[in-house]
Write a structure and sequence with these properties.
Elements (H helix, E strand, L loop, with lengths): L2 E4 L3 E7 L14 E7 L1 H11 L4 E8 L3 H9 L3 E8 L5 E7 L5 E6 L8 H8 L7 E4 L6 H11 L2 E4 L6 H4 L8 E5 H7 L10 H11 L4 E5 L5 E4 L4 E4 L12 H14 L4 H16 L11 H6 L5
Parallel strand pairs: 1-4, 1-8, 2-6, 4-5, 8-9, 9-10, 10-11
Antiparallel strand pairs: 2-3, 6-7, 11-12, 12-13
Helix pairs in contact: 1-8, 3-4, 6-7, 8-9
Bound molecules: alpha-D-ribofuranose.
Length: 302
């Protein structure tokens, strides 16, 4: 069984700021750091660090070589990443404020230049029972899902960043949804200005997609797993956050990693929660993702 993550690769320009810049304001940043990132790349690295043999597919420009090196260093196979001469690598402008929160502006670049031919070539290397991990930072998602489903691959979708494109995807073919309350609310066409009850949303999502498993993250309230047989609640681990970038990607990679290594849902949720807690104590996206041994040794701040 192989795992393919078909997703974005970004150069993250991370600016440390006191607060997020407001409309009409010019703000000096305290520092600029350049990190490897992109939800796809981060999740591939988290999967590999969680101990799963991982293949990454996607596209970069000629300026994206260091992203491939970062993936390879973590043990990810990058043979399915196309290096394009005609387009630059995707990037993200990230503001990281004094509370450790972030806001992100994306430029798609090569991530939005995936072709159907590339999809066909990549998927030809995978077969029935292999896993496909997707997020929402590349184009051709519908085609990828249709072709993968036809082959009998298991589809894991993290519908992030959420936008109207997600609602047009063949969501009935998804085996695992990993998402937050706002994303779940939008899939269920809820008024996103209202507060959501996370567990109720997970139950409704399961009614709508009864063959899927739902992993819903609820910020400080932890996360919940739900399928037609079991429900597992997982509290968050308490830590001092310095940068929340890639915490969700780390959670996703370690949860799926745990399931694929044969751990129970409960153990996988615990590992994912610990891994995400470690990630928020470190700056940057991919560089903040811990190794499996670090996650196993982690103990919460009291
Ligand atoms: O989830 C974090 C990621 O979102 C960052 O690495 C950034 O590139 C954006 O894709």
């Amino acid at each position: 069984m192989k795992v393919l993550c078909f997703g974005s690769l970004n150069i993250d320009y991370t600016y440390k700021v006191d607060h997020f810049v407001k409309k009409g304001e010019t703000l000096s940043s305290e520092s600029l750091k350049v990190f490897s990132g992109g939800k796809g790349l981060n999740q591939s690295i988290a999967l590999a660090k969680a101990g799963v043999e991982t293949f990454h597919a996607g596209a970069v420009g000629e300026d994206g070589g260091f992203l491939l090196e970062e993936l390879q260093k973590a043990g990810v196979n990058t043979d399915c990443v196309t290096v394009r001469e005609d387009v630059r690598t995707g990037n993200a402008i990230i503001q990281n404020d004094r509370e450790g929160d972030n806001c992100i502006l994306l430029y798609g670049g090569a991530n939005q230049a995936i072709t159907k031919e590339q999809v066909d070539t990549v998927l030809a290397r995978f077969e029935h029972g292999d896993f496909l991990v997707l997020q929402n930072e590349i184009n051709e998602l519908s085609y990828i899902m249709e072709q993968a489903h036809r082959k009998g691959m298991k589809i894991i979708l993290n519908p992030s960043p959420m936008n109207e494109k997600i609602l047009g995807l063949p969501l009935d073919s998804v085996d695992y949804f990993l998402l937050n309350e706002v994303e779940a609310g939008q899939i269920l066409s809820r008024d996103v200005t209202k507060r959501f009850d996370g567990e109720a949303l997970a139950k409704e999502l399961l009614q709508r997609f009864p063959t899927a498993a739902i992993v819903l993250t609820m910020g400080g309230a932890g996360s919940v797993y739900l399928d037609k047989e079991e429900m597992v609640r997982q509290p968050v681990c308490k830590v001092q956050a310095v940068d929340t970038t890639a915490a969700g990607d780390t959670f996703t990679g370690f949860f799926i990693g745990g399931i694929l290594r044969g751990s129970s849902v409960k153990e996988s949720m615990e590992m994912a929660s610990r891994a995400a807690a470690i990630a928020v104590t470190r700056r940057g996206a991919a560089p903040s993702i811990p190794l499996l041994e670090e996650v196993e040794c982690f103990s919460e701040e009291k």
